Amino acid sequence: MDGKPRQRVLLHLGRYTTVEAALEGWPKEVEGLRRFASQRRDKAERLKKGDAAEQMVATVVERAQKAEKLADEIAAKLKRLHDLRDQGKV
Fold it and tell me: Which residues contact residue 51 at a Cβ distance below 8 angstroms, ignoring those fewer than 6 apart?
């Protein structure tokens, strides 16, 4: 190691520059993404009832699924960050 400090990334904070900023921002992001996903699902239901094209409905549903998946990923990172903080690693 030649006297160089060794570090490794425990969790990437994305656009946040501090742990505190991520702990504050991620819950808001998760909430917003889940709200967006719910709105897209509602829109898809309205489109189905209004005889919209299947492709249009599928596109709206796909956007909802992507938003929900991203919300799940951020929520998992948030849990991991809380765990690391509880362990005294960050």
Answer: none
